[in-house]
């Protein structure tokens, strides 16, 4: 499990220090001015929080948690705009990956591992709804989580608009299209968007992409695991750029 901190003031200080917080658990029904101040800071920082019974907090830590436990990511997150600017300045052919609500930590880890192998220069995830980076994520990624810059953003749509305005083609992997992946030209700056395990890419994001593409499925099963599908998409970019 990720490292934990507990206590209202300790968690607030962690937020002030810009610690990479995965999730905050708050005791249901807790009152007080300091607790309200904590709730306000959580909202301001766009962090994920859950209200849980005190028994849940007692299971997470035996220490005096004061009704608050936060789980810290083992990986430090990058500033999104700074990441894009640095990659654009250093690379002739930038390559990004965006994950829309991928929620399984092992899928996330497998995706990070493949992304590192394919030369992806940055992974972008939303602050809310995305799988946290836990010890399981790092283990499944075979340590690649420490090698690929990962940025969290408030809204994935804003990140896509920023990439597009930076001259980066954004392509979504979806079955809701007639175009196959092999018809897309990846010999240009690009970003791939992968959707969640159960719903795929959300309709609001699909509507703003430059291209959508699907994989040909020749068997009777109608879809691939998201980490497998992501690998095929990323390696098509590699194939085109190497040829």
List the helices and strands and how they pair.
Layout lengths: L2 E4 L1 H9 L4 E7 L5 H13 L3 E4 L1 H7 L7 E5 L7 H11 L4 E5 L5 H13 L4 E5 L8 H6 L9 E4 L2 H10 L3 E5 L16 E5 L8 H4 L4 E3 L12 H17 L1
Parallel strand pairs: 2-3, 5-6, 5-9, 6-7, 8-9, 8-10
Antiparallel strand pairs: 1-4, 2-4
Helix pairs in contact: 1-2, 5-9
Key attributes of the depicted protein:
alpha/beta, four-stranded mixed sheet, elongated, 243 residues, 10 strands, six-stranded parallel sheet
Q: Report the span from N to C terminus.
A: 42 Å
Average pLDDT for all residues: 93
- The number of E-state strands comes to 10
Please give the count of helices: 9
Output the helix-strand order: EHEHEHEHEHEHEHEEHEH
User: How is the main sheet built?
Assistant: 6 strands, parallel
Low-confidence runs: none
């Amino acid at each position: 499990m990720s490292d934990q901190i507990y206590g209202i003031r300790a968690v607030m200080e962690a937020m002030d220090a810009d610690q990479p917080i995965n999730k905050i658990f708050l005791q249901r029904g807790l009152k007080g001015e300091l607790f309200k101040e904590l709730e306000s800071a959580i909202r301001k920082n766009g962090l994920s929080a859950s209200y849980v019974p005190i028994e849940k907090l007692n299971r997470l830590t035996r220490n005096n948690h004061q009704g608050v436990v936060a789980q810290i990511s083992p990986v430090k997150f990058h500033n999104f705009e700074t990441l894009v600017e640095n990659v654009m300045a250093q690379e002739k052919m930038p390559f990004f990956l965006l994950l829309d609500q991928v929620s399984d930590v092992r899928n996330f880890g497998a995706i990070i591992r493949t992304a590192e192998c394919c030369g992806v220069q940055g992974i972008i995830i939303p602050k809310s709804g995305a799988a946290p980076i836990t010890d399981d994520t790092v283990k499944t990624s075979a340590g690649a989580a420490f090698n690929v810059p990962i940025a969290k953003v408030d809204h994935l749509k804003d990140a896509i608009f920023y990439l597009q305005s930076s001259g980066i083609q954004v392509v979504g992997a979806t079955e809701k299209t007639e175009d196959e992946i092999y018809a897309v030209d990846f010999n240009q700056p690009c970003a791939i968007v992968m959707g969640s395990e159960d719903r795929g890419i959300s309709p609001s994001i699909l509507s703003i992409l430059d291209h959508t593409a699907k994989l040909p499925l020749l068997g009777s099963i109608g879809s691939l695991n998201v980490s497998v599908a992501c690998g095929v998409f990323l390696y098509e970019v590699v194939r085109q750029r190497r040829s």
